[in-house]
Design a protein that fits this description.
By secondary structure, this protein is an alpha+beta fold. It has 14 helices and 23 strands. Helices cover 30% and strands 27% of the residues. α3 crosses α5 and α8 runs antiparallel to α9. The model has no long low-confidence stretch (mean pLDDT 95). It binds adenosine monophosphate and glycine (GLY).
Length: 426
C-alpha cells in the first residue's frame, strides 16, 4: 500500500517513518513534507498545499493511494478530510465538524459539560466588558483563551487581574484573527500535564501510550509556551489504573458526546490533561490530531503496524483489532530549536551530524528543515526532534542527549533538562 501523510513537521516525519516500518507500506508521500521526509528511504515529498483538496484527491486516485493520514489541525478544521472522503479516498482524520473539538474551545467545553467530563470551571464571553467583569469577580490566577485555532498562542495563564484584562483586550482587538471575538475564561489548574492520544473509529476509542511534553521554552519549565521542547513516554504520572479511569471518565464520554452530535469521527482524539495534586485527571483541551513532539516518542514505541490501526479506524473495525503492542522501555525526545524561538529566530543554517546522530541508534525527526541542493537547512523555529529509546527512563534520556551532541548548526538551542519533572519517580 502507498500512503500520504499531510503536513511538514516532526510529527509528520515520525508518522511517515512509522508507516514505513510496516511490511504493508511500500511508499509514503508527504505533502509538503520537510528535509527529513525528503531523505527518508521510501518517502518522497510532493510540493502541494495541505488544503489543495482537488490536487491531493487527483494525485491519490492516480497513484492508487490506500491511506491519507492528516497531521495538523488546520487542514482538518478546513474540511480537507471531508473533501477527500467525498472522492472515495480513505482518510485518517476527523471531519470539519469533528475537528471543532480543537478548533473551538467553547464548542469543546460545551461537549465536556454535557458529557460530564472533568475539566476546569469556565465561562464563555462574546463581549469584552462582560469578560472583564467576570475576571474582576474571579480574581487571579486565571486562564484566558481565544476561542479558535491560534497556533498555540491563544492562551494566557494570567497571574494578575491586569494581565488577564490585557489578554481579553488583545483577543477582542482581533489579534488572533478569526480566533478572536470570543473568549473562554477558565479556572487555573495546578498539577502535571499529560498527553493522552487516543484513536477512534467513531464507535470505539482506545488510548495510545501516555506521554508528557515540555511546553515552555526555558530550563525548569519557565518562559513562554512553545509547540513543545521535548517529550517522553510512557510517563509514571499516568499509571495503568489512572489510564483506565481516563478511558471511562474522559475518552468514552467524549466519543459519546461526538456521537450525540451525529459526528462520525475517525482519527485521533488527544486529551491534554492536568493531573491535579489529588490525582484527578482534568481536561485542559482536546486536540483533533496527534501531538507534536509526543508523537515522536509514542510512535517509535508502537509494535503494532500504524497503518493497521489507521485503516481499522477508517473502516470502523477498531473493536476487532487485538490490543496494541508496545516495545518495552522508554522513549525520550529532545527538540533542537533555533535561538530566539518562539519569538524571532534565524533561518537557513546548514545542519551537520545527522548521520552520526542516527548511528548512535537515535531517530532524528525533522521539523523545520528543507533539503536545498543536497544540504539540510533550518527553515523553522523547531528544527529537529531527536528521539532515543532505552530500557530505563534515564537511559532513553541519556541516549537522546548523546545523539544531540552529534548534531551541529549555528544558533542551536535545546533544553538540557527534558524529563526533569519525573526523574525522581523512577
Ligand atoms: P491549551 O492551548 O488550552 O492547551 O493551553 C496551553 C497551555 O496553557 C496548556 O498546555 C497549559 O500549560 C496552560 N493551561 C491551559 N489551561 C489551563 C488551566 N485551566 N490551568 C492551568 N494552565 C492551563
Ligand atoms: N505538544 C502539544 C501539542 O501538540 O499540542
Amino acid at each position: 500500500m502507498k500512503a500520504i501523510v499531510i503536513g511538514s513537521g516532526g510529527r509528520e516525519h515520525a508518522m511517515a517513518w512509522t508507516l514505513l516500518q510496516s511490511p504493508n507500506v511500500t511508499a509514503v508521500v508527504c505533502i509538503p513534507g520537510n528535509g527529513g521526509t525528503a531523505t527518508l528511504p521510501g518517502c518522497s515529498n510532493l510540493a502541494m498545499s495541505v488544503d489543495d483538496v482537488e490536487g491531493i484527491a487527483r494525485f491519490s486516485l492516480v497513484q492508487n493511494i490506500g491511506l491519507v493520514a492528516v497531521g495538523p489541525e488546520q487542514p482538518l478544521a478546513d474540511g480537507v478530510a471531508d473533501g477527500l472522503r467525498a472522492e472515495g479516498i480513505t482518510v485518517f482524520g476527523p471531519s470539519q465538524e469533528g475537528a471543532q473539538l480543537e478548533a473551538s474551545k467553547a464548542w469543546a467545553k460545551a461537549l465536556m459539560q454535557e458529557a460530564g467530563i472533568p475539566t476546569a470551571a469556565s465561562a464563555v464571553f462574546d463581549q469584552a466588558e462582560a469578560a472583564t467583569a467576570y475576571v474582576d469577580e474571579q480574581g487571579a490566577p486565571i486562564v484566558i483563551k481565544a476561542d479558535g485555532l491560534a497556533a498555540g498562542k491563544g492562551v494566557t495563564v494570567a497571574m494578575s487581574v491586569e494581565e488577564a484584562k490585557d489578554a481579553i483586550a488583545a483577543i477582542f482587538d482581533g489579534q488572533f484573527g478569526a480566533a478572536g471575538k470570543r473568549v473562554v475564561i477558565e479556572e487555573f489548574l495546578t498539577g502535571q500535564e499529560a498527553s493522552i492520544m487516543a484513536v477512534t473509529d467513531g464507535l470505539t476509542i482506545r488510548p495510545l501510550m501516555p506521554a508528557q511534553d515540555h511546553k515552555q521554552v526555558g530550563e525548569g519549565d519557565t518562559g513562554p509556551n512553545t509547540g513543545g521542547m521535548g517529550a517522553y513516554a510512557p510517563t509514571p504520572v499516568v499509571p495503568t489504573d489512572l489510564l483506565d479511569r481516563i478511558q471511562t471518565d474522559v475518552l468514552e464520554p467524549a466519543l459519546q458526546g461526538l456521537k450525540n452530535r451525529g459526528i462520525d469521527y475517525r482519527g485521533v482524539v488527544y486529551a491534554g490533561l492536568m493531573i491535579t495534586p489529588e490525582g484527578e485527571p482534568k481536561v485542559i483541551e482536546f486536540n483533533c490530531r496527534f501531538g507534536d513532539p509526543e508523537t515522536q516518542v509514542v510512535l517509535p514505541l508502537l509494535e503494532t503496524p500504524l497503518d493497521k490501526i489507521m485503516l481499522a479506524c477508517c473502516e470502523q473495525r477498531l473493536e476487532s483489532l487485538p490490543p496494541f503492542e508496545w516495545k518495552s522501555g522508554y522513549a525520550a525526545c529532545v527538540v533542537m530549536a533555533a535561538e530566539g524561538y518562539p519569538g524571532k529566530y534565524p533561518k537557513g543554517m546548514a545542519i551537520s551530524g545527522i548521520d552520526a546522530a542516527t548511528d548512535t541508534g537515535a531517530m532524528v525527526f525533522h521539523a523545520g528543515t528543507q533539503l536545498e541542493r543536497g544540504v539540510v537547512k533550518a527553515s523553522g523555529g523547531r528544527i529537529l526532534g531527536v528521539t532515543a529509546l532505552g530500557d530505563g527512563f534515564g537511559d532513553a534520556i541519556a541516549n537522546a542527549y548523546r545523539a544531540v551532541n552529534n548534531l551541529q548548526f549555528e544558533h542551536a538551542y535545546y533544553r538540557q533538562d527534558i524529563g526533569h519533572r519525573v526523574r525522581s519517580q523512577f
